[in-house]
Write a structure and sequence with these properties.
Blueprint lengths: L1 E8 L1 H7 L8 H13 L2 E6 L7 E6 L2 E6 L8 E9 L3 H10 L7 E6 L5
Antiparallel strand pairs: 1-5, 1-6, 2-5, 3-4
Length: 115
């Protein structure tokens, strides 16, 4: 079954630790390598800062585009992984190994296949 690991944390701290365009931290490189060797990773990416994001809403026939994320929160979505493991317990085990789990939150959500 596929699960998405959504990495939430303090964007300012995340960007200070590894600025955009910088190479991956050794912790993340090791985590990515472990997932690759285990054959569980389907994909994943780091996201650019929320200052570069927009939120889109449609009401009737009017499209509204807002700067930044929709909600002001203490933690921002900084990246994600999509993994394929047998069950939620194993997805949680991989989330616990993610370096961001030490200072942020990893939301584990089952993927609902559309095809």
């Amino acid at each position: 079954m596929q699960y998405m690991l959504l990495i939430h944390g303090d964007e300012v701290k995340m960007n200070a630790a590894t600025p955009a365009g910088a190479s991956m931290s050794p912790d993340y490189a090791a985590f990515n390598e472990a997932m690759g060797k285990a054959g569980v990773i389907i994909g994943g990416e780091r996201l650019r800062p929320t200052t570069e994001a927009v939120s889109v809403r449609v009401a009737g026939d009017k499209t509204e585009v807002l700067d930044g994320p929709y909600a002001e929160t203490k933690e921002q979505l900084g990246g994600y992984y999509v993994i394929d493991v047998p069950d939620m317990d194993q997805a949680i085990a991989w989330a616990a190994r993610c370096p961001a789990a030490r200072n942020g939150t990893i939301e584990v959500r089952p993927v609902w296949p559309t095809r």
